[in-house]
Specification:
It contains nine helices and four strands, in the order H-E-H-E-E-E-H-H-H-H-H-H-H. With 289 residues, it is mainly alpha-helical. It has a four-stranded mixed sheet with strand order 1-2-4-3. The radius of gyration is 19 Å and the shape is globular.
């Protein structure tokens, strides 16, 4: 973003902070989180909270009647992260590495880490399929940015912030334009080509990001299927299990209404019919080496 535009947006957002309190951030029943009071540079904690609640609402609406542990959002300095260890009061700790009025960056980072919380993240060191959750969380970032552009165009946290709505979609497009284009029909080939790297380095953002693009289309076409993510870690992953077995475990855990969605994910990766995960012929992600 050029300096002139950055200054314009900073002035716009600062003016809103002085004009009154934020609107209600949307329905977040069952979701409790707070934002640390300090560390956000020019932005106040109340403004940051309004942005993050708005972002959370985009995904949380697809998780009806569910609960999550309370979490706190802190300012970090070494990249965004959700910690496995809870703090002294039992909250999940999320750290965002951003400040001032860079709302797009806040939303991008928060949505990714929030998706980990929604998936029931766990300490999965050594699990070879962690890359898939990382990829889905990259999808969440793009999904929320694009949807939030529509939300803020109609109902921004502050009325003055309505002009900022288009920035979310612009930011998402910039991210998408900078990524490798895998294409819908080639996820299996792409995964097979990069399988070893993904299994060894699940947080490879270039690879996660490339695969996120075709999956984004899938989630945008069936947004109610975000709820399926809640069952991604409902049971422990088998140590050394294949990707096909990982998806089979997920399919067995989700409610029946979400099984077609998981089946479609399998098809996108070229894994064929459900039930073939443990005994079917070798295919993308099925090699046991």
């Amino acid at each position: 973003m050029d300096t002139g535009r950055r200054q314009f947006l900073a002035g716009l957002l600062a003016a809103a902070a002085a004009s009154g309190s934020a609107r209600a951030a949307g329905e977040l029943d069952g979701l409790r989180f707070r934002v640390a009071a300090d560390g956000w540079g020019l932005a106040g904690a109340g403004e940051v909270e309004a942005v993050l609640k708005s972002a959370a609402g985009v995904l949380w609406k697809y998780f009806p009647a569910q609960q999550r542990e309370p979490f706190v959002v802190l300012r970090g300095r070494e990249g965004p992260i959700v910690l496995y260890q809870r703090n002294v009061v039992g909250e999940i700790v999320m750290k965002l590495d951003t400040e001032d009025y860079l709302w797009c960056q806040y939303v991008y980072q928060f949505s990714h880490e929030f998706c980990h919380i929604l998936s029931g993240f766990e300490d999965r060191a050594g699990k070879r399929n962690n890359w898939f959750e990382e990829t889905v969380c990259e999808v969440a970032s793009l999904f929320v940015l694009r949807r939030l552009s529509e939300v803020w165009a109609a109902h921004p946290p502050y009325s003055n912030w309505q002009q900022y709505a288009q920035e979310f979609r612009r930011y998402a497009q910039g991210v998408m334009d900078g990524r490798t284009q895998v294409g819908d029909g080639h996820l299996g080939d792409f995964y097979r080509k990069h399988r070893k790297t993904l299994e060894e380095t699940p947080r490879d953002r270039s690879l996660n990001g490339a695969m996120a693009l075709p999956l984004l289309e899938l989630f945008e076409g069936a947004p109610e299927s975000w709820e399926a993510v809640a069952w991604l870690n409902r049971s422990p992953s088998q140590e050394g299990g294949t990707f096909a077995e990982y998806l089979e475990k997920w399919r067995s855990a989700v409610p029946v209404k979400h099984r077609n969605f998981v089946d479609e994910v399998r098809r996108r990766f070229g894994l064929g019919d459900p039930g073939a995960g443990a005994a079917g012929p070798a295919g993308p992600g099925h090699s046991r080496d």
